[in-house]
């Protein structure tokens, strides 16, 4: 399998076995408003190039995300409970595009400066009271 897409489902988490999908290149989880956590095993998905987690209620990303050496695009738009990025985030050497619109992140990890290939960083917060 190369691409796995979950849109508008009621899932609350992904099974630990998701990490065994080592040839997966794109994992797209959009508008799963009950998804509250990702398993540490996600770091085993060595071929993953694109991770999309738009509109999830995750609070933080697992530390293992830093082992995704091929990740080039990460979309975390409208994950408005996401309040921090793990310290391992700076290990994402091939991350080119990072989108974090409407999250609760107010501070980037110290390792953020190690993202030497980052070309696009989009962070924005909607004004209080604005309808999504």
Automatic annotation (TrEMBL):
<dbReference type="InterPro" id="IPR032675">
    <property type="entry name" value="LRR_dom_sf"/>
</dbReference>
<feature type="domain" description="Disease resistance R13L4/SHOC-2-like LRR">
    <location>
        <begin position="41"/>
        <end position="124"/>
    </location>
</feature>
<dbReference type="InterPro" id="IPR055414">
    <property type="entry name" value="LRR_R13L4/SHOC2-like"/>
</dbReference>
<dbReference type="Pfam" id="PF23598">
    <property type="entry name" value="LRR_14"/>
</dbReference>
<protein>
    <submittedName>
        <fullName>Disease resistance protein (TIR-NBS-LRR class)</fullName>
    </submittedName>
</protein>
<keyword id="KW-0677">Repeat</keyword>
């Amino acid at each position: 399998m190369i691409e796995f897409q979950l849109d508008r489902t009621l899932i609350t988490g992904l099974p630990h076995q998701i990490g065994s999908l080592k040839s997966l290149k794109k994992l797209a989880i959009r508008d799963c408003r009950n998804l509250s956590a990702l398993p540490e095993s996600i770091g085993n998905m060595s071929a993953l190039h694109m991770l999309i987690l738009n509109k999830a209620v995750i609070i933080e990303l697992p530390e293992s995300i830093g082992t995704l050496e091929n990740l080039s695009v990460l979309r975390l738009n409208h994950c408005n409970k996401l309040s921090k990025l793990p310290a391992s985030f700076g290990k994402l050497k091939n991350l080119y595009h990072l989108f974090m619109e409407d999250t609760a992140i107010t501070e980037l990890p110290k390792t953020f400066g190690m993202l030497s290939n980052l070309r696009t960083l989009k962070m924005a917060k909607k004004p209080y009271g604005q309808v999504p």
